[in-house]
Amino acid sequence: MTAWTEHLAHLGATLGEHAVTFAEPATEAHAASTATIAVPLLHLGLIRSTGPDSAAFLHNLVSNEVNKLEPDAAVWNSFNSPKGRMIASFLMWPEAEGHALALSADILPAVLKKLSMYVLRSKVKLANAGAELALVGLAGPAAATILQAAGIPLPAADMKQAVDEAGVRCIRLGAQCFIIAAPADGAGPLFDALLAAGAIKAGTAAWQLVMVRAGLPLITAPTQEEFVAQMLNYELIGGVSFNKGCYPGQEIVARTQYLGKLKKRMYRVAIAAGIDAAPGMDLYAPDFGEQSAGKLVNVAPSPDGGLEALAVLQSSSTEAGEIHLGAPAGPALQLLALPYALS
């Protein structure tokens, strides 16, 4: 146990593998829906790329622009298989000596190993930075006010970052949603400052609900190499550049974009109370019979005791509006709105 996780335990947290909880799932989901929450993002891990070749190295491997990334910017990005299937999705930002990649902690070791295979003669070092930095999420209507009260720098616009003299970095995902990357030894006091300024402590599932409602997917172990970027709406949230050079899977991603062959999209769905669901579970629809029509991507508890999820589905199946979980006659799902248009 680290000083950061010990601090969380003293605050009443229950710690699991890559997860933290402070209260019952429905209670935390209610807080995520009505208040401003501060969440230790233990389900995310960090890979650091350092060295003079960091930008060029990563640019040749990932789906989004790196060479032209502004020093104060952050971007959604992905690492894909040669077949164009997403191995990892991540939030990337430049640092003074390279770049940081925040991705699902359960796939970090394998992704780090795979990326390291491409280093060869490049002047770049890749490392797990989880022991150096702690990530905290802040989301809700009072988020900007709480950041300022806690003395944390406020970025000027969405997908921008700001850094203070102590190395505390704040990334703005949206007007009410931020990720803070802080030196691990100062994470405890920083979290306390957020709570003192009015944030409510909440766990991993509460943050996952925020991300589901924002339509921001996270690739985890059960969904690796299942989806092409556009199936996860990645070009709609700014996670793909179609003007950069080649990278693994680029031909498939570009062909999907320009030949109009995309038949699946990511949707938001509701799952009734009392039904178990997990990422990677198959979904069914009458127009596909016994054949899977899609899969769950991310799942989070909702305040009513049910679940909300991001799901990749055949667009034709959603038009009919009848989607079932786990089997053709499984529990019916309800389609919910996303905060952006599916074009």
Automatic annotation (TrEMBL):
<dbReference type="InterPro" id="IPR045179">
    <property type="entry name" value="YgfZ/GcvT"/>
</dbReference>
<protein>
    <submittedName>
        <fullName>Folate-binding Fe-S cluster repair protein, YgfZ-like</fullName>
    </submittedName>
</protein>
<dbReference type="InterPro" id="IPR017703">
    <property type="entry name" value="YgfZ/GCV_T_CS"/>
</dbReference>
<dbReference type="GO" id="GO:0016226">
    <property type="term" value="P:iron-sulfur cluster assembly"/>
</dbReference>
<feature type="domain" description="GCVT N-terminal">
    <location>
        <begin position="24"/>
        <end position="227"/>
    </location>
</feature>
<dbReference type="InterPro" id="IPR029043">
    <property type="entry name" value="GcvT/YgfZ_C"/>
</dbReference>
<dbReference type="Pfam" id="PF01571">
    <property type="entry name" value="GCV_T"/>
</dbReference>
<keyword id="KW-0809">Transit peptide</keyword>
<dbReference type="InterPro" id="IPR006222">
    <property type="entry name" value="GCVT_N"/>
</dbReference>
<dbReference type="InterPro" id="IPR027266">
    <property type="entry name" value="TrmE/GcvT-like"/>
</dbReference>
